[in-house]
Specification:
Blueprint: H1 4-22, H2 25-28, H3 41-45, E1 53-57, E2 60-61, E3 65-66, H4 73-82, E4 87-91, H5 101-110, E5 115-118, H6 124-132, E6 137-141, H7 147-159, E7 163-168, H8 171-177, E8 184-188, H9 200-205, E9 214-218, H10 224-233, E10 237-240, H11 242-245, H12 250-264
Parallel strand pairs: 1-4, 1-10, 4-5, 5-6, 6-7, 7-8, 8-9, 9-10
Antiparallel strand pairs: 2-3
Amino acid sequence: MKNILDEIVEYKKTEVANNKALFPIKLLEKSTFFEGAPVSLKKYLRRSDKVGILAEYKRKSPSKGTINNNASIEKTSIGYMQAGASGLSVLTDQNFFGGSNDDLVIARKFNFCPILRKDFIIDEYQIIEAKSIGADVILLIAACLSPDEIKSLSKTAKSLGLEVLLEVHDEEELNRSLVGELDIIGVNNRNLKTFETDIETSKSLVNKIPDEYLKMSESGLSNPKTIVELKKLGYEGFLIGERFMQSSRPDKACGEFIKQIKELL
């Protein structure tokens, strides 16, 4: 039985083929962002004046439907960074998440900070595309990539100076996917079959991730106490989107969340 990730990947294959025809690689390489030096997410996540929040801009999701169609990418991205976020995550998938490459371009124009291109990467073309729109980090999802694909795609990213966040959902994915040139291992607490989130996923995997990688927890992080607990276990990054985007002012929600974390530390 297909899950939502299978459906997304099938759609991506067609989308990438269409984009290759419309926007050839030589055209992407002429982008004003292409020669820019990427900003390190790892360094920002480890800054002593921040708490490791990677704040996400996300309009909708397959599991929740529309989350926030009104928040401006410009105001939200600037506000996130002013609130003390360590970096930005921008959804660029349009069909399933309501995002676009333009969202990331706008975030890049108004912020000097690390930006993750949050999308479903299955082809090196998308990595070149990520660089051309101003991304500093790409996401590779272990659940839809083979070890050879992870190795090859991470090599392409590194050749462009981009950092690589590898996302895993369980120990089996983790064990088979620690290949290639990876920087951050993200543990997604969301079960792709049920859409339920369980923080125990992060807790159970933290000591199984080699210390050479920065450790990030993703999904279901709605309580500042949970962040403090996961920090003590060894996590340094926390990807949070819905918790902030459900507010009419995501940046204000982010600021209050970070303030509460600092009070608990």
